[in-house]
Amino acid sequence: RSVTRSYYRNSAGGMLLFDLTNRTSFESVRRWHREVTDTLQPSRLVFLLVGHKSDLVGQRRVARREAEKLAASLGVQYVETSAKDATNVVQAFQMLTLAIYQALQSGRLSPTGAWDGVKSRVPLPIQHKAGEQEKEEEKKKCSC
């Protein structure tokens, strides 16, 4: 347990991941959530509930509505993913990143000098539109 706790100490966010085809994993989510929040007190962590293996429709043991209800009770967002066909995998990380950013902006999550998580002085990377990245790289090249 102490090794596990070292993984999420000083974290800004985390995914509570359960297997849609495994009822026991779903039933463990509350315990996992409680373990992390108890360990990190008084710090707050931004969570995203993720039901994975959404491609295995015939083997599903957890209904979407039930998972959404759990997410609402924990005060987190919910998304279903599939690593097999890459459904919503990128979206899950984007959702968590955006939720962390919004928590920082609202003051619900606040970095301190001693905190190893999100650094308050590090500027957010600028997202370039298609083609702009190449133009920026061309400007950096020597014109000799």
Report strand order across the widest sheet: 1-2-3
Instruction: Calculate Rg over CA atoms.
Output: 19 Å
SS-derived structural category: alpha/beta
H-E order: HEHHEHEHH
- CATH fold annotation: Rossmann fold
Largest sheet: 3 strands, parallel
Number of helices: 6
How much β-strand is present in the residues? 5-15%
Shape: globular
How would you describe this structure to a colleague?
GO terms for molecular function: GTP binding; GTPase activity. Keywords: GTP-binding, Nucleotide-binding. It comes from Calypte anna (Anna's hummingbird). InterPro entries: P-loop_NTPase, Rab_GTPases_membrane_traffic, Small_GTPase. Helix content is 43%, strand content 13%. By secondary structure, the protein is α/β, with parallel strands linked by helices. It has one domain (2-113): Rossmann fold (3-Layer(aba) Sandwich), CATH 3.40.50.300. The chain has a three-stranded parallel β-sheet, with helices on both faces. Helix 4 links the parallel strand 2 (46-52) and strand 3. The protein starts with a helix and ends with a helix. The model has no long low-confidence stretch (mean pLDDT 82).
